[in-house]
Design a protein that fits this description.
Low-confidence stretches: 42-47, 54-69, 86-107
Mean pLDDT: 75
Number of strands: 12
Largest sheet: 5 strands, antiparallel
Shape: rod-shaped
Radius of gyration: 44 Å
Distance between the termini: 75 Å
Length: about 250
């Protein structure tokens, strides 16, 4: 990384200076007795040191530095060049990695957004629960005693809905048709595996298969068979929000 290259350049600078000192001492010993002299760098020295960059930077690039008065400055410039290349490569690598992750996560993000939109829509429907739950084609049970014992707890199919809360019911056993208010009726929960119609809440109007009855909570678990939530398993729908479909009777 960046620190590694800086350390390598500093080490090379130190070795260059030590080599110069050793050469100066050797020259002094060759020409005569050892005397104390001041070390000077030659202005026109043509001696060069070659830096070879590691292959991890791509192609090997040689950086030549003249060993004159500006040797250290030149080495520093070389170090900065290496650092700049390292920073550039690191930035490109980071952006490439981020871009790859972003592309890889697009599918998940889209599905999460779609899921969020669906849940948001479901939340709106929950807030817009209707007072009226009656719907054509479902089986209902009469719970009022005002009609006499022959009608109490009798089951029938809703053939028509009028004035929002009024219904025309055809009794299954008696074959009679009577008009009732929804307050005189309750939903009918079929056996597990039979079809029901969702009457209220987020999944209103959707057909579903009954998976389980939660007797202690007065709710059911279902799997949606139609509508935008087809295939979804839904837990704890209140008894009053689903009823048996006549076609299954």
């Amino acid at each position: 990384g960046k620190q590694w290259y800086q350390r390598r350049v500093r080490e090379r600078q130190e070795r260059i200076l030590m080599d110069q000192i050793e050469r100066a001492r050797a020259n002094t010993s060759d020409t005569g007795p050892s005397t104390s002299t001041e070390l000077e760098r030659a202005e026109d020295s043509e001696e060069k040191v070659v830096f070879a960059m590691p292959k991890t930077l791509g192609s090997v690039k040689k950086v030549e530095i003249n060993l004159g008065k500006n040797a250290l400055k030149a080495a520093d410039r070389a170090a900065r060049d290496v650092d700049d290349k390292s920073d550039t490569m690191s930035t490109v690598s980071t952006k490439s990695s981020s871009s790859s992750k972003s592309r890889a996560g697009n599918g998940k993000k889209r599905s999460a957004i779609e899921e969020l939109m669906a849940e948001n829509e479901a939340g709106k429907k929950r807030k817009k629960r209707k007072d009226s739950w009656v719907s054509e084609g479902i089986i209902v049970k009469i719970i009022t005693k005002d009609l006499g014992k022959d009608y109490f707890k009798a089951k029938g199919v809703i053939e028509e809905v009028f004035d929002t809360y009024g219904v025309k019911v055809k009794l299954l056993k008696l074959g009679k048709k009577i008009k009732l208010d929804q307050s005189h009726l309750e939903t009918v929960i079929p056996q597990v595996g039979r079809e029901v119609l969702v009457l209220n809440g987020a999944y209103e109007g959707g057909r579903a298969v009954l998976d389980k009855m939660n007797v202690d909570k007065f709710t059911v678990d279902v799997t949606m068979r139609s509508g935008p939530f087809k295939g979804r398993s839904v837990r704890d729908i209140p008894y009053e929000d689903v009823s048996k479909l006549h076609c299954n009777d």
